[in-house]
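Exercise 7. Given the components listed, write out the predicted structure of the assembled complex. Treat all entries as one system.
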Amino acid sequence: MNKAFLQIGFHHQWVASAIRFVGLFVLALVFFALILLVFGKNPLRAYADIFSATLGSAYGFSEVAVKMIPLILTALAVALPSRIWLINVGGEGQLFIGALFATWGAVNFTNLPVWLLLPWIGILGFIGGGLWGAISGYLRVRGWASETISTLLMNYVAILLVNFFVFGPWKDPESANYPQSAPFPDAAILPSFFGTRIHLGIVLAIVGLILFHFVLSRTRWGLEMRAIGVNQEAARRNGISTNRYIILLMLIGGGAAGVAGMGEVSAIHGQLRPSLSPGLGYTGFLISWMAGGHPIGIVAAAFLLSVITAGGDILQMTHRIPAAGVHILMALILFVVLARPAGKKGGK
Amino acid sequence: MSPIPLLTLRGITKSFPGVLANNHVDLDIYGGEVHALLGENGAGKSTLMKILYGFYRPDSGEVRLNDQPIHIQSPHDARQFRIGMVFQDFIQVPALTVAENITLFLPTLPFVLDHVSIIKRIEEVSGRYGLKVNPHAYVWQLSVGERQKVEVLKLLLADARVLIFDEPTRSLAPHEIEGLFQVFANLKRDGYALVFITHKMKEVLACADRITVLRHGKVAGTLKGSEANERSLIALMFGRQIEESPGRPSEKQSDGRKPLLELKGITTQTEGMAWGLKDIHLTIKPGEIVGVAGVSGNGQKELGDVVLGLEKCAAGVKYLHGEEATAWSVARIRASGVAFIPEDPLGMAAFPWLSVQENMAMANPRMYSKQGGLSMDWQAVRSDLQASLERLGFNIPPYYVPLGILSGGNIQRMILAREMAHHPKLIIAFYPTRGLDVQSANSARKVLTSSRDQGAGILLISEDLGELFSLSDRLVVMFQGRIVGTSTPQQVSINEVGYLMTGSKGETKQSE
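Answer.
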């Protein structure tokens, strides 16, 4: 009887949160429609255009998938540490440092064969982002700074570091003074599929999601992480080293964001530029919290936000709505996401 | 005594899924009386009082105030009817002063606060009832006993007439308990109605004018305090004789054996309000229970944490099983056969949102993992848990439900079973029976004595002197982070220990 009761409860809860999610999303759309109306635009036309440009064609759809790749990875960078209540706001910086490391590998090891160079820059991306995240983990363990603050502040440092290199020592002399690195050799470009821009990164993102789910639900490490998440005091008394997990999860999370940076710089840009990321790290944060750290939820939320960003480009081109417009929509979604019932935390 | 009861409860029934917590309970509460509610854990005392304070609504039944029916829908309503409750966990803001905490609770807060007159009222009321606290002190600076006084003052200044105390003596030292009973007497004199929830017989007999015993949600009987005695109350509480708590220390001589634990000159850094340890020397041998007496907050928790490896030693050496273990990690110490029975299983040992079997695996996640951690051997976890539960004589719960949905007593049993599953060599027991009813407490004590008889060493930290005297082979008393006395239960009296615990023996010696 107990078991049946629990199952009903669980099912009910799942449906309720799905309804809530959709309801809040519709609410955000209605608000944004009002804003469009104020500016004399037809919201229905705008929404119809967004839909047809993104999901109405194979090309549009593939572009949505391209946008989802880094977002899933940066969402994982937030979701993993959030299991033990670490708040990683540093996905953006970790992504930049990952891209920086990958670029270093790509332009300095040009004579490596492709089967070696690609894993190499992948690993470098992971290490770069991972170290950047682990610094914040270390600061937290020593009790010197909260990881929320240090990850946030280190984003600026990371972006400025990248700027330093592309404006300075790494500037491509052949680039007519544009701040960008030398282009990647062909062997350092992640292959794309089916004539679209969907690149190998999608495999990494999916593997990341599966690993995330598997580690949490099946392994000893997942059990220990969940234990820390539920009751840190009891975990300590049972001999689980919380500090080790703090550094490790910040390292792996940062690494995931670093891999996202590697993917962007290698497959999309082909060279390091300051305009590497339109806030992918922050959007990943938003996705992780929308999804409550659930793998399927991460895919769904990443899809949703990719459609909106792609739609933003469309609105800009066809309706002459400035790019900031779509940021209003994202901010509205962030608001309704944060309007969870009191006491319910994001990582649950 | 007033002829009409201040509060009348008639036919109060309240059920939760699967439990009938209150079954047609009738209760009369008079002004100028201490009314004790006595019963085992889960007898329905707290539920009944939470109904009175508006936390729960009864399924049926009626509450009358001065013979007028009233509906209490919320704690706010209860306060309107001048009913107040002192909870086990005080609702106070540590960063604010006593006066500010009391002011926050006043029913009508003016826009501009008149601190002077509020402080005057606090001093007036606290002087009248023996509730001396410094209104300017910050709440975080106060002891548990003082914080309780603040709680009572809050209610008095907010004009409550009925004061409900939910296990108020739980974390008080013996002399503080006496002080509380004096406060009861003072309040009684002014016509306040006091309800005292407890499961401690001695305290009930010491202070109650009227005693209502609840059993399985029903009123088993109401007695006058003057007519009650321990035997009649036990008969009402349990409906049958229960066995006495397991008695005397072991006969075995453990002198010849190698010590399990040796602390030599352990000193720790002080953190916050607690006392750090100062130059602690302690030895525990196989087959003995070393009891640690002391008023809570005098370093006992730190002592246990040092043994567990949670607290770092600033000076001194620690040996475990004959090896130097000063720098061992918690995980290594636990794996070497050190079990930990916490005072507060939900806070310190259990993971409420993990399943029963996942909680069990936390005893040693490394041991239960396969392929180095890639998966867990749940089969082994379950069979170990089952074996341990059977050894202890506890019921077997469903393995897949979250531990948090079990009752408090069952959570405590699960933790006991988990800790005892691997036949620990050294057991650190923090207040192992605190808050347990008589039968659960007895089974917890039995676990300790039988482990002792099988050769385990036990560090027993407790405030219950009766328990310490009946279980310990040796006793140490802690005061302000030092061991101020070492003896055996045969060689000292409870009173002597009591004096050592409160530091008063030292003072009298100096003044002599």
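Discussion: Chain B is about 35% helix and 25% strand. The first helix of chain B runs from residue 45 to 52.
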